[in-house]
Amino acid sequence: MVVRNIMSIFILLLFYSCSNNHITRDESEYHDLTNLSEGIIDDIFEKVDLVPLQFEKETYPNTCNKIDISDSLILITDVRQLVHIFDWEGHNLSCSNIKYGNGPGEYEILMGAFFGKEMDQVIILSPFKMITYDRYFNTIREVHLPTKIGHTAMLYSYGYDLGKDKYLLLPTLTSEQPERVDIFDSNKETVIRTLNYPHGSTSFISMQNDCFSELPDSTIILCPPAYTKYLYKLTQDSIIPYVNFSFGSEFLTKEEIDATGSDIMNQSNLIFNSSREYPMRQMINSRLIITLVRKNSSSTYDWYTIVSNRTKGSNLKINLSNGKEFIFPSIRMIDENYAYTIYRKEFLIENPTLLLNKKELAEKDLKDIDMEDYVLLKYKFRK
Questions:
Q1: For residue 12, is pLDDT > 50?
Q2: What is the per-residue pLDDT across 294-311, written as a single tens digit (0 to 9) for each?
């Protein structure tokens, strides 16, 4: 079954080295998202760096999907099932089109892509196998993925490298039991443990770019690809509710979504056509939590971002648009110091607030690229 970018469910998750899988209930950090103050882009970011992405003409994408970053590389996926690798100067190092096929070391359907623990390793998930490449898509390793566990058919779209040949694999919504995480031993080509999602969700439709964040103290936080009121902390022997949210009365409720039945398309139609609000994406670092909220329609003109300051306990609401232009970026991912997203040059020229109103940035950094070319924006957080 061809599945593109359908967001997988949030599932309970544990390090592969855990000796047990009990859930520890703990006092979690709390954020009341019904109590919001108005904010602007300058409240959050102090500067932005621009990285023009030099896609090759023959593999130029219509739409960019996932972003992943490492110390030396940028990974971009697009709707045509391709993975593009760039350095931090924006030079196009390689594209997975050379591995698109049904032979050894090749894939026919792109389910997911991410960086591995080893330097410059790129990992691709397809329905039947997981392939590890170097930065130029030379094949390093290919292993078979289980397509059925017991009587349950599985497809995986998210992966996370735990090291020592162990991986966390998150199923897609099309899997028969999406509310799970499978811990995969790539040496044995088998799932060595399955963990189920502990608290339930309102819905498993999301626009989550990635699900895991590692904080400076090495704590790993799971941001579920789902509408849920929890973010979770992973320890060696437990999964603990780490952040607890209260969403306002303007948000869709579980009862409203359940009333559409189990059909994913019916749920999606409700979410994207309702005047009610819905959290589409969440990201966390040691100081901030960012929540992207869909409002009124599928048009992002009406959407907004909530920036929760974990130290101060404040929650700022910042609209993506003022009705005339976009004034805050639709952030794809964050790390400890930066937020990242991607836009075309033309869009940035039309919406200069996204450049922190520094037109000289466009004149200096974007002068040699075409209007339709893509640019990675790297925003530095204010301290």
A1: no
A2: 987 767 889 999 999 999
Least confident of 208-212, 216-220, 237-241, 287-291: 237-241
Distance between CA atoms of residues 31 and 84, nearest Å: 37
Cα-Cα end-to-end distance for the chain: 46
pLDDT at position 73 over 60: yes
Collapsing DSSP to helix, strand or coil, 271 comes out as helix
Nearest to 61 by CA among 28, 44, 26, 86: 86
> Hunting for tokens 């389910």 — which residue is that?
111
What's the structural domain count of the chain?
Answer: 1
**Residues 24/199, Cβ–Cβ less than 8 Å:** no
- Whichever domain contains 116, its CATH number is 2.120.10.30
On whether residue 1 sits in a domain, the answer given is no
Spatial CB neighbours of 150, under 8 Å, sequence gap ≥ 6: none
d(CA 2, CA 304): 32
Q: Is the pTM of this model over 0.70?
A: yes
Range of the domain at 203: 29-381
More confident residue, 211 or 74: 74
Q: Over the stretch 320-370, which tens digit does the pLDDT of each residue have?
A: 999 999 999 999 999 999 999 999 999 999 999 999 988 888 888 898 899
Q: Is 261 exposed, middle or buried (0-12, 13-18, 19+ CB in 10 A)?
A: exposed
**Residue among 335, 250, 324 at smallest CA distance from 293:** 250
CB 347 within 8 A of CB 338: no
**pLDDT average, residue stretch 233-237:** 67
Q: Is 68 a domain residue? A: yes
- Residue 8 located in a structural domain: no
Q: Could you count the other beta carbons within 10 Å of the beta carbon of residue 363?
A: 9
Predicted confidence (pLDDT) at residue 371 exceeds the cutoff of 90: yes
Question: What band does 16 get if pLDDT is binned at 50, 70 and 90?
Answer: very low
C-alpha to C-alpha distances, 79 to 84, 109, 204, nearest whole angstrom: 12, 11, 21
Structure-token match 């359940």, residue found: 258
Q: How far apart are CA 343 and CA 372, in angstroms?
A: 9
By three-state DSSP, how is residue 157 classified? strand
Q: Which residues pair with 153 in a beta bridge?
A: 148
Question: Does the residue 376 lie in any domain?
Answer: yes
Q: Cα separation of 145 and 185, whole Å?
A: 10
What's 268's DSSP letter?
A: H
